[in-house]
Amino acid sequence: MEGKTCCVSGHRDIPADETAPVKEALRQEIEKAVNDGFTAFLSGFADGVDQYFAEIILELQDENPNLKLIAVLPYQKRMDSLCQKEHTNALLDACAEVIVIQEEYRPNVYAKCNRYMVEHSDRVIAVYDGREKGGTVKTIRFAHQFRKELREIPIGLNLDKNRTNLGQNRR
After folding, report:
1. To the nearest whole percent, how much of the chain has pLDDT over 70?
2. What is the model's pLDDT at position 1?
3. Which residue from 69, 67, 22, 21 is spatially nearest to 43, judged by alpha carbons?
4. Which of 45, 42, 58 minimizes the C-alpha distance to 12?
5. For 27-55, what is the mean pLDDT?
6. Is residue 137 within 8 Å of residue 131, measured between CB atoms?
7. 3-state secondary structure the chain
8. CB neighbours of 110 closer than 8 A, spacing ≥ 6?
9. Which of 59, 53, 55, 62 is nearest to 30 (CA)?
């Protein structure tokens, strides 16, 4: 991947009353990334944050055709199911590239997908509510492990001591 690369991680179940503020904060982080010279954007295409991210990248592509959206999907059947839905099929069609991590589902495939995105990114944007379990916290830990720039968008009421343990906006 040429240029600076940014990926996203976030929850699938954003509360309805937080959707608009999350989308706005995500847009601000993406615009900051574009202003900082990022041109490639990786999304795992999960429901929620991943798809909001993809939609925003494609909107910004109208003004900046140098931006590339890259789908990083965990396994082949996930791609097949996304292609069956009109909205996600259109998002996938607009991608510069679609990467499928492995052919078959295995219990650790989502972690592999998140790790791949972090390893191939310079910046990680995480929409995070403080949960101690799940893909987003694991992705944040990968960002720390690989010393990637982390931009965190805090949400929800679960923000507790975990935030101090994980850090925020650190390299």
Report:
1. 90
2. 54
3. 69
4. 45
5. 97
6. yes
7. CCCEEEEEEECCCCCHHHHHHHHHHHHHHHHHHHHCCEEEEEECCCCCHHHHHHHHHHHHHCCCCCCEEEEEEEEHHHHHHHHCCHHHHHHHHCCCEEEEEECCCCCCHHHHHHHHHHHCCCEEEEEECCCCCCHHHHHHHHHHHCCCEEEEEECCCCCCHHHHHHCCCCC
8. 44, 74, 135
9. 53
Mean pLDDT of the chain: 91
Size (the chain), residues: 171
Residue 125 is encoded by which pair of tokens? 């944007």
Specify whether the CB–CB gap between 60 and 24 falls below 8 A: no
Tokens of 135: 């893909």
Residue type, 20: A
pLDDT in tens, 100-139: 999 999 999 999 999 999 999 999 999 999 989 999 999 9
pTM for the complete prediction?
0.89
Given a contact cutoff of 8 angstroms between Cβ atoms, the answer to whether 156 and 129 are in contact is yes
